[in-house]
Amino acid sequence: MFGECKVPPGSLRRGCAMHLNGAMSEGRGLVVIVEDEPAIADVERLYLAQAGFGVHIERDGPGGLAAIRRLRPVAVVLDVGLPGMDGIELCRTLRAEDDWTPLIFVTARDDEVDRVLGLELGGDDYLSKPFSPRELVARLRGLLRRQDGPGTPAPITVGEVTLDSARRRVTSGGEEVALTTTEFELLAKLMSSPGQVFSREQLLSSVWGHVDYGGGRTVDVHVAQLRAKLGASSPIRTVRGIGYSAS
Ligand code: CA
Questions:
Q1: How far is the CA of 116 from the centre of ligand 1 (A)?
Q2: Does 19-148 match 156-246 in CATH topology?
Q3: Which of 9, 31, 36, 117 is deepest in the core (most CB within 10 A)?
């Protein structure tokens, strides 16, 4: 049976770990899925849980609306064709209450796409069935990243290294790595744009806040320390004659 998950009250805010269907969430927050096709809801739940989200499923419009009001999720994945109250009406109701929870519509037909696009819903997104569940996760992350703004970006992963600026936390190959503030900022800069090559001057100016043309050595020393701490999983590459990149 594709049941809904019961989430204990008080465990719903982002940053709190929670147990859902026996799995420990990484604490990215709770996503409410409103979907009347159990097989689709289940695939969505599986992928979102793997991505670290807690998941609560509702099967109809009124139940979805009540759950969103009660649970205050970080985002909603909302089917358009729903019993009781359709997804568009549900969204209208939320927005009329000044609830701007990020929301991704799931549409089954072109005319539903037209209806979703015809609304002014403040930068929300939609996916057309059939869609890849990976695409759903990517869209959701993008939506949350944009919502968070540059101050608290979503965690970035390059290879086996994940950097979480909101929590000032870095893991390499699944192990937490203790970094100094400078090492953290340097890694964050490199990982902010994977594959982009940063010159030593760019890194100095962005991480240290100044450009000292004799300071390239400072960058090299910190990069060496970072690599030693990150071990074999280090994503930092030396680009000869230019600088460094993370890829
Ligand atoms: Ca439906």
A1: 14
A2: no
A3: 31
Q: What spacing in Å lies between the alpha carbon of 80 and ligand 1's midpoint?
A: 6
**Six token digits for residue 176:** 């937490």
CA 109 / ligand 1 centre spacing (Å): 10
- Residue 36 Cα to ligand 1 middle (Å): 5
DSSP-assigned letters across all residues of 123-162: S-EEEESS--HHHHHHHHHHHHHHHHTTTSPPPEEETTEE
Give pTM, 2 decimals.
0.52
Domain residues of the chain, as ranges?
Answer: 19-148, 156-246
Distance between Cα 81 and ligand 1 center (Å)? 4
- Among 30, 28, 26, 41, smallest CA distance to 8 is for 30
Residue with tokens 């400072």: 218
How far is the C-alpha of 198 from the C-alpha of 156, rounded, in Å?
17
> Do the beta carbons of residue 136 and residue 47 sit within 8 Å?
yes
Q: What is the pLDDT along the chain (247 residues), one digit of tens a residue?
A: 333 333 333 333 333 333 343 334 446 789 999 999 999 999 999 999 999 899 999 999 999 999 999 998 989 999 999 999 999 999 989 888 878 788 888 988 878 877 776 555 543 677 888 888 998 998 888 777 766 655 556 889 999 999 998 888 999 998 999 887 778 889 999 998 889 999 988 888 777 766 655 567 778 888 998 999 999 999 999 999 899 999 9
How many angstroms is it from 32 CA to the middle of ligand 1?
A: 15
Topology (CATH) of 156-246: Arc Repressor Mutant, subunit A (1.10.10)
